[in-house]
Amino acid sequence: MSYRFCPQCRESLIRNAEHQGNLHCPSASCQFVFWNNPVPVVAAIVEIDETVILVRNQGWPESMFGLVTGFLEKGESPDQAVVREVKEELGVTAILESFIGYYSFFPMNQLILAFHLRGSGKVILGEELADFKAVLINELKPWPFATGLAVKDWLARRQ
Fold first, then answer.
1. Pairing outcome for strands 39-48 and 110-120
2. Which residues lie closer than 8 Å to 129 by C-beta, 6 or more apart?
């Protein structure tokens, strides 16, 4: 997201070193700075019966699958958010097993907080998902960016 005008006073925003190169309002009475901080996102490695559930979001290519992810909501801890996202997206009950780690995803300006959850129940896809697949843990292959790095770390810890 980027701004051209100040959302508080409508002045044109400018960029200079005074605010670490971030856009800011030149008005002395306003002082707005657009810091463009990363957005926190939770990601879930959902394990059900010795498989990991990978999902394909609406609009993704048919061959692209990844972890269940979602944004934190106001007043919600990352632990609560990841359990909620799994319930919303997969329709399964999940128990938080462990925190895997945090991963920067610069193309989307996100900080991903990855967790391992143990799920139970029948998968019923939420409206944001187009498909899912259950991959045997010993056949799971990490991808070289974003949540794939969490998969890589999780698999390494299992050995």
1. parallel
2. 55, 56, 57, 58, 89, 90
* 97 and 145 co-located in one domain: yes
Q: What pLDDT, in 10s, does the model give residues 7-21?
A: 999 999 998 777 778
Reply yes or no on whether the pLDDT at 1 is more than 60: no
Q: Which residue has tokens 């958010």?
A: 81
Q: Which residues contact 59 (CB under 8 A, 6 or more apart)?
A: 130
Residue 28: its H or E element: none
Measured between alpha carbons, how far is 42 from 1 in angstroms, rounded to an integer? 20
| Burial (Cβ within 10 Å: 0-12, 13-18, ≥19) of residue 88 | middle
| Residue-number span of the structural domain to which 149 is assigned | 39-158
What is the band of 155 on the pLDDT scale with cuts at 50, 70, 90? very high
